[in-house]
Amino acid sequence: MRPLQVPLVSDVMTQKVFAVGPDTSLETAARLFAQKRVSGAPVVNASGEVVGVVSASDLIDPDRDRGAGVGNAHYYSLENGHALEFGDPTVGRDGTVREVMTPSVLRIGPDQSIVEAGRVMVSKAVHRLLVTDDKHVLVGIVSVMDLVRGFVETEPQ
């Protein structure tokens, strides 16, 4: 029996990450999640710094306070340190991501094992972690499904 090679987070993470801004409308975030088939996204400010995360459950939670803010219709695609902006930031819609996002960010390094990523997810009861380099720059995102795929693909035959 050969030993199991446990992949690193960098082996299974998604490198192309869709993100929203704090002033992105709730409707735009929901549409992004539906179109891209994702259940959450990092929230980044104008300089690309991660300031929080938002999930589909944040968007639909009827008990979340929502202010009277008007959000815009834009989001980002982040890959290899580059950000592309999409949508129209001049189109206003009720509600902003800032009102429902979680401002704390759980991170993991790309050189950590997927076992360690799983431990963090279980202990914090989350479904995804942001992957950042030594300078806390976003390099990817790792989800529960990414971890499952990593374990399944490394299973000895």
Describe this structure in words.
This is Inosine 5'-monophosphate dehydrogenase. It holds the Pfam family CBS. It comes from Enhygromyxa salina. Residues 13-70, 101-157 form the CBS domain. The structure is a single chain. With 157 residues, the chain is of the alpha+beta class. The chain has one domain (9-154): CBS-domain (Roll), CATH 3.10.580.10. Helices cover 27% and strands 32% of the residues. It has helices at residues 9-12, 26-36, 56-60, 114-124, 144-154, and strands at 17-20, 40-44, 50-55, 70-79, 82-94, 107-108, 128-132, 138-143. The strands form 3 sheets. Strands 1-4-5 form a 3-stranded antiparallel beta sheet. A hairpin with a 5-residue loop joins strand 2 (40-44) and strand 3 (50-55). The longest helix has 11 residues, at 26-36. It is globular and about 50 Å long. The mean pLDDT is 86.
Question: Which structural traits does this protein have?
Answer:
157 residues, alpha+beta, CBS-domain, three-stranded antiparallel beta sheet, three-stranded mixed beta sheet, 27% helix, globular, Inosine 5'-monophosphate dehydrogenase, repeat, CBS_dom, CBS domain, CBS_dom_sf
